[in-house]
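TASK: fixed-backbone design
INPUT:
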């Protein structure tokens, strides 16, 4: 069938959301009957003069809502009896770049923090999952340990001792629902409304939003080439309850917190009786020099809470992470975990524990470090070829993204919006700042960009910016 509608470049919504909204409205109005076959993404892209990936993203969004069903070679079909229940909102919600709006392969190019889903050992994971499921006994169907399974906590403690220099017992480890789950526990135990909390500026927006939800007074502390400016934090809020930092690979600038600054931060925490949250989100991936030690490995006064996540190393849908707490806080955090989450699903924990215990975890990290180094180089080369002197590529020693600046270009939020309309997902650097200007630029995740795709995706990015 043919869809008769047009797109409006002046609308604030990305093109794929406009396509989804128009198809959704046509289905709700009965203009497209249940069971009707929609045009192929290639045909509709040609009709609307947009990239095919833009249409793929729109169809994926509709499929996630249940409005359409993708049937391989049969094409995209309007859902049957569910069609009459679809409501067409006046304005489509901005879901970019959530999983609901992602293409069928589960990724949007340049999205930050997304690992190489195409390189994940899915068959091995399925085998371990089946093996774990076959061992389920009636006793396993009851309540789960709110701290996490003993096997996974021990596996995490063993891994951290070897890889991050952290000496902790399994009793200090709590299994969480990713970093956000760890942060939810931290704010429920340690933060009260009005408490000042240091946060790196620029920094991770969801951390700031989570802290503000708890009523904390977020104090933005400038970041320079040596990381968090501890002296500036002391001047702004000397008795802050908490400091949230990414010392190994600062998010998003990529700088590392220098040793003098680390010691200064730990000394402040001890003197002020404050706490430091170390978000070690992608420390495994360093491409120049040796891996940097964790801040927690220097923590003699037990003032650091160390948070890690399997989302960046394995895959985001797993929704598992871990938090290492000082011994004096373990009882309070265990109580909070019991009240807030009652623990995490045991089957997934058992699979991760087996993955780590059998050596697959360490091997996977080594393979990804090599793969990411190659993808990092190929994307940087494609950017230099595609943009020339119009862009400056800043490559940190580690991490999962590049920072690209465009001297003399428009506001980076405008550039990011234009890229979104082309089915790309870069992040505007300015969107991660609070009070201190760190310039303009786009943050491009490279881990989910195959070498064979780099030039074509840079070409799309160039077209969007131009």
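OUTPUT:
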């Amino acid at each position: 069938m043919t869809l008769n509608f047009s797109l409006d470049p002046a609308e604030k919504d990305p093109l794929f959301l406009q396509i989804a909204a128009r198809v959704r409205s046509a289905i709700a109005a009965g203009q497209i009957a249940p069971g009707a076959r929609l045009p192929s993404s290639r045909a509709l892209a040609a009709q609307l003069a947009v990239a095919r990936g833009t249409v793929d993203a729109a169809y994926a969004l509709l499929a996630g809502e249940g409005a359409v069903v993708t049937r391989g070679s049969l094409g995209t079909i309007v859902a049957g009896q569910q069609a009459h229940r679809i409501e067409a909102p006046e304005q489509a919600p901005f879901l970019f770049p959530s999983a609901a709006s992602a293409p069928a392969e589960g990724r949007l190019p340049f999205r930050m923090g997304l690992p190489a889903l195409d390189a994940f050992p899915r068959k091995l994971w399925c085998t371990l999952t089946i093996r774990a499921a076959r061992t389920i006994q009636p006793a396993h169907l009851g309540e789960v340990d709110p701290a996490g399974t003993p096997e996974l906590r021990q596996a995490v403690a063993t891994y951290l001792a070897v890889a991050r220099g952290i000496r902790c017992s399994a009793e200090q480890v709590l299994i969480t629902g990713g970093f956000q789950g760890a942060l939810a526990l931290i704010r429920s135990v340690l933060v009260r409304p009005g408490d000042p909390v240091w946060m790196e500026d620029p920094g991770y927006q969801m951390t700031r939003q989570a802290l503000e939800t708890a009523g904390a007074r977020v104090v933005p502390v400038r970041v320079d080439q040596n990381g968090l400016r501890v002296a500036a934090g002391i001047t702004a809020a000397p008795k802050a309850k908490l400091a949230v930092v990414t010392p190994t690979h600062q998010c998003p600038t990529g700088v590392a917190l220098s040793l003098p600054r680390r010691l200064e931060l730990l000394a402040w925490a001890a003197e002020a009786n404050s706490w430091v949250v170390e978000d070690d989100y992608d420390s495994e991936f360093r491409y120049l020099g040796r891996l940097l030690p964790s801040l927690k490995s220097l923590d003699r006064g037990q003032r650091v809470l160390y948070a890690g996540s399997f989302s960046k190393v394995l895959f985001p849908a797993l929704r598992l992470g871990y938090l290492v707490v000082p011994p004096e806080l373990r009882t309070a955090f265990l109580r909070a975990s019991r009240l807030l989450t009652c623990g995490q699903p045991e089957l997934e924990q058992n699979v991760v524990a087996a993955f780590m215990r059998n050596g697959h975890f360490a091997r996977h990290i080594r393979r990804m470090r090599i793969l990411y180094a190659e993808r990092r180089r190929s994307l940087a080369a494609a950017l230099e070829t595609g943009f020339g002197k119009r862009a400056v590529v800043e490559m940190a020693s580690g991490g999962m993204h590049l920072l690209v600046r465009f001297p003399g270009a428009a506001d980076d939020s405008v550039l990011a919006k234009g890229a979104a309309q082309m089915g790309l997902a870069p992040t505007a650097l300015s969107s991660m700042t609070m009070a201190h200007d760190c310039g303009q630029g786009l943050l491009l995740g490279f881990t989910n960009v195959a070498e064979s795709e780099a030039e074509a995706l840079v070409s799309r990015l160039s077209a969007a910016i131009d």
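COMMENT: DSSP finds 14 helices and 14 strands in the chain.
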